[in-house]
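Tokens in:
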């Protein structure tokens, strides 16, 4: 790759990430994506995890974003997801960024509405 194709800042899933970081570390900066899940996503997409994120093409970035938005379609097991057997819809979901914050706050409010001590501790 040439220097002209390098992006100093790359936007992935609504977060600006410095282009000099390795892909695994950069993806783990996104709220809701951990280091292990980032490795599994990159393995399922056959992307080298030691590459710098600034050298990725737009096509590879869109593949990563679609895998983050819906990891079940890329073959990631359901036990990697952060919302298994969700109370709202019964399915396995994976939330990131503000969706994760909203889901946690709605869980706390649900616990408070049923007068659970668990809801009042948070």
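Residues out:
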């Amino acid at each position: 790759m040439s220097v002209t194709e390098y992006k100093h800042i790359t936007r992935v899933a609504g977060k600006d990430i410095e282009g000099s970081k390795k892909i695994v570390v950069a993806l783990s900066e996104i709220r809701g994506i951990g280091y292990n899940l980032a490795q599994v996503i990159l393995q399922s997409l056959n992307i080298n995890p030691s590459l710098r994120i600034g050298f990725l093409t737009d096509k590879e970035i869109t593949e990563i974003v679609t895998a983050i938005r819906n990891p079940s379609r890329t073959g990631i097991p359901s036990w990697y997801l952060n919302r298994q057997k969700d109370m709202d819809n019964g399915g396995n979901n994976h939330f990131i960024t503000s969706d994760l914050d909203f889901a946690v706050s709605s869980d706390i409010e649900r616990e408070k509405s049923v007068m659970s001590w668990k809801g009042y501790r948070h």
